[in-house]
What does this fold into?
Amino acid sequence: MNDLITLHPEAQALLFTDARTANTFTDEPVSDAQLRTIHELAKYPPTAANTQPLRVLYVRDGEPRERLLTHMNEGNRAKTATAPVVAVLAADTDFHEFVPRVFPIRPQMRDALAEDPAGREQMARFNATLQIGYWLLAVRAAGLAAGPMGGFDAAGVDKEFFADSSWQSLLVVNIGKPGPDAWFPRLPRLDYDEVVRHA
Amino acid sequence: MNDLITLHPEAQALLFTDARTANTFTDEPVSDAQLRTIHELAKYPPTAANTQPLRVLYVRDGEPRERLLTHMNEGNRAKTATAPVVAVLAADTDFHEFVPRVFPIRPQMRDALAEDPAGREQMARFNATLQIGYWLLAVRAAGLAAGPMGGFDAAGVDKEFFADSSWQSLLVVNIGKPGPDAWFPRLPRLDYDEVVRHA
It folds into this structure.
């Protein structure tokens, strides 16, 4: 027990210390209400100028799942086929259209961003990735396990699902209740002195 | 109250619903033990192949703080001058050196990454940004407020502090206890139906 941590020990365990990436899932369905719940938490932590560029495509069973599987690396295919729901997390490069509403103190930022597609793409991908960090912990807060996977063909997924939109896929995440042998032993984490310096 | 959320309501408030980005701070110091505590939580959530490329430079008062201030956008300078401690969050593009220890099931990944500096940089920046999401919530879990700022000269900071290293700065974050008038009213968040699609 570290008494410098304000967060309750049960919450520490749920979100950080005991939570694990799941590789198998039970048949227990994930409801639309549970997916809305994830958003109710994940929407709050900060993004640059409150731009919130993260977008989520939820893929349930059937033909869309089959199409998604063709773009997953082979090692990720079996678990992506059996998870109750799969999330494709993406950055919306047209996030600037929302600026007048989400950042009303500087609505003219929309027009400046409209003229800078390269800067907009960079800003969208950075802030959406930050939001994925929040989102993964929100999945755990909703009592679900997440299985994030970078091993997929992003260009293929974008063509398959986002051809008519400004979304760019960043990560694919299986969601559900952990099944049998859902995880391997935890891998080592780097020590404080390996990742932190003091100036 | 949403009974689909497993996370205790006090923890929801601390990390998500009531937490705010702080723009002013009290004089109360942040101890090294508190900074270690942030790492004890932030180190756990997942990264690709457990690579953990996030690095943190903590800047306290004095000459290093003065040097940092010269690279902050003018609007961020006053708050960065007065926060008890400032974190420069960075991606380590030489993260692959740790692969044999942190991903022992595939130690040869180190050599493959050694030959792909461009892929390594992309992987470092993406996974470190994901970890910043975890890290910001860990700051809150430690009972502190964070004030993340994208408005700084990243190339200038890298030259000033990381010239002899493989670190690339991504975000600067003030940390401390919120001071008087620490925040503006909360800005609007996008609705579920604006950011989510179902396939």
Summary: Chain A touches chain B through 78 residues (CB under 8 Å). The CA atoms of residues 75 and 151 of chain A lie 8 Å apart. Chain A has nine helices and five strands.
